Amino acid sequence: MVVRKRRNTKMSIVVESPTLTARKQQIGPILWPELDWLRFFAFFGVFIFHATPRRPIFYDGAGIPRWLAGVVMSVTGAGVYGSIFFLP
Q: Residue 82: its pLDDT value, please?
């Protein structure tokens, strides 16, 4: 395949082989299935962060001890860092 390009009124010819063009089309996005479990926990942490209440008064009204409410809020608050995993 011959591609002609114009640059600054000069003509340049680029020759690409058909196998190279076919290889470029086959590559597609790079996916690593080994990271699926990490993606799951990152998503799950973000989901739990948004699904649980972050006000101590909610846990007081539900009859949950303050120490346990503090643990729950700390653990679920760490889920916000899972969103960093999804950034490009």
A: 74
Closest among 12, 15, 78, 74 to 42, alpha carbons compared: 78
Given a cut of 50, the residues of the chain with pLDDT beneath it are none
In the chain, the number of structural domains is 1
Locate 80 and state its tokens: 């916000």
Residues of 26-46 as b/e, b for ≥16 C-beta within 10 angstroms? eeeeeeeeeeeeeeeebeebb
Q: Are 36 and 43 in contact (CB under 8 A)?
A: no
Query: Residue 76: which of 57, 51, 59, 39 has the closest Cα?
Result: 51
Cα 84–Cα 32–Cα 81 angle in degrees, nearest 5? 15
Task: Check: pTM over 0.90? Answer yes or no.
Answer: no
Domain span at 14: 2-86
